[in-house]
Amino acid sequence: MANKVDVDAIRKAAQRLDAADGPIQYLRNVQALLEDVKLPSGALTLFGGPTVAAHNDAVDGHLDNVKKGVEHLRRAAEQLEQTAKNWEKSDQPWVVK
């Protein structure tokens, strides 16, 4: 059996990553929610300062991870699209276009 490369399937996988209901949008939604849960410095009175700082540090850590996740998925989508373009140009007889 010959190997086949389905260019349209590769392209669709790239598009699904950034679809309205895809993982990139999901992470953007998480990012927006996390940005809303940061606390102002006086939120827990003067004595709660360290707790607020720890909370905001944890939120910042999660935000950083979410932003990196979005960037990784965007790069994956771009690379999948480039792969589809490369296979589209291929002259191999077993490439399904």
Question: How would you describe what is shown here?
Answer:
This protein is mostly helical. Helices cover 67% and strands 4% of the residues. It is built from 3 helices and 2 strands, in the order βαααβ. The protein has helices at residues 7-17, 23-36, 49-88, and strands at 5-6, 95-96. α2 packs antiparallel against α3 (49-88). The longest helix is centred in the last third of the chain and has 40 residues, at 49-88. The protein is rod-shaped and about 70 Å long. The two termini are 18 Å apart.
Oligomer classification: single chain
Order of helices and strands: EHHHE
The largest beta-sheet arranges its strands as 1-2
Q: How many strand elements?
A: 2
SS element count, helices: 3
Radius of gyration: 21 Å
Q: Roughly how much helix do the residues carry, as a percent range? A: 55-70%
Question: Stretches where pLDDT falls below 50 for ≥5 residues?
Answer: none
Name the structural class: mainly alpha
The N- and C-terminal alpha carbons lie at a distance of: 18 Å
- Largest beta-sheet details: 2 strands, parallel
Percentage of β-strand residues: under 5%
Q: Quote the average pLDDT.
A: 91
- Gross geometry: rod-shaped
Name the descriptors.
2 strands, mainly alpha, 97 residues, two-stranded parallel ribbon, 3 helices, rod-shaped
Topology:
Layout: E1 5-6, H1 7-17, H2 23-36, H3 49-88, E2 95-96
Parallel strand pairs: 1-2
Helix pairs in contact: 1-3, 2-3
Q: How do you describe this structure in short?
A:
With 97 residues, the protein is mostly helical. It has helices at 7-17, 23-36, 49-88; strands at 5-6, 95-96.
